[in-house]
Task: structure prediction
Amino acid sequence: MGIPLLEFFNVNYSYHTISCETLSLNNISFQLNKNEFISFVGPSGCGKTTLLNLIAGLLPVTSGSIQINGKPADLSNLNIGYMLQKDHLLEWRSIYKNLTLGLEIQHKLDKTHLEIIDDLLKTYGLWDFRNSYPRQLSGGMRQRAALIRTLALSPDILLLDEPFSALDYQTRLNVSNDIGSIIKEKGISTLLVTHDLSEAISMADRVIVLTKRPGTIKSIIPIHLSIEKRTPKTARNAPEFNQYYNQIWEAIYDENEDFG
Result:
């Protein structure tokens, strides 16, 4: 399979205050392979978002190490895309201007990258809204726009921090299906943090269950669904789906009855 695209080696992270030190993540080790999709689930406060922030370089590890494509994370030249819970679209910029913001910041506002944005807008139904403003779009359309903005930078690794949590159930299902299909089609290695077990199973190749704080890996569950042309939506109809759901729920329930 070659060198893992991302690898954690016994990573610990602690929050420090004037009065104390709080261990948030404890002895985390796992690999993300090329074109793989991993979902992280676990009780509230177990460090799922902190884990993504470590990968993005927003926080430094306390001990242990993170490697990206076989190199220390701070020496890697791979692009990491980060899609947050809120779309963070700027209300005073048109959708098109929002999508080019990252390119402007990174001085990549060239023909090649603009063609990528145009293609994504046309493919995913936002071309006719490119000159609209965020307030004129539905929640689902805003999340599609946020994803296009992230994909415009051609990320090698995509981090998703509960990107559908603010949407109603039907929209959430449709948008997660669209975004999951886009990710699979483009072969982007992805890490998803979610509280929605159905979402975690339907989108992932593996689900990693974290314990309550300090978060450590309790189990890693490969997902094998016997369904043709799998998408996040059709995956929920697989005969094995409920079995995986119960297995993951029991692993979390053992740790903390309050999963939300």
Remarks:
- The CA atoms of residues 44 and 260 lie 6 Å apart.
- The mean pLDDT is 88.
- The helical segments are 48-55, 95-99, 101-105, 111-123, 139-151, 169-186, 197-203, 241-253.
